[in-house]
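Re: that chain you flagged

S.,

Sorry for the slow reply, it's been a week of failed gels. I finally had a moment to sit down with the sequence you sent. For the record, here it is as I used it:
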Amino acid sequence: MRLHPAAQEGTPMKLGHTGLLDSCKPAGEVLSRVGDKWSVLIVIALRGGPLRFSEIKRVIGSISQRMLTLTLRSMERDGFIARTVIPTAPSRVDYQLTKLGHSLGEPVEVLGRWAFEHKRDIEEAQTRFDRRKLRG
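Prediction finished late last night. Pasting the structure tokens below so you have them in one place:
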């Protein structure tokens, strides 16, 4: 039986116990930010260097202006991107990855590669599942 790392004395905690879920909450909060669709795409877009808002929107394509604004603001708050206002007429705002944001580049790339390689497998599994549900 595998035990939860925090189980030292008393009743051992099996994996799947609610104590394990409680210990995963901090990681879950971080993963919900770095793992959402838009944050991942923004990290990919900014890996090549700073971009303006309109350039990020153009690279990503299907994101709404509101969603891009909210996601950039959240990523800035979490320390993944830096927003720089350049005092020109009109003023220019650039977004770039911070050191922390750049550290996401490799995991995001690996996850993206995995998703691309397994897209067909997932679609086939979904088709099989949907057919079973329609029959039963």
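What I noticed first: The chain has two domains: 1-34, 37-135.

Talk soon,
D.
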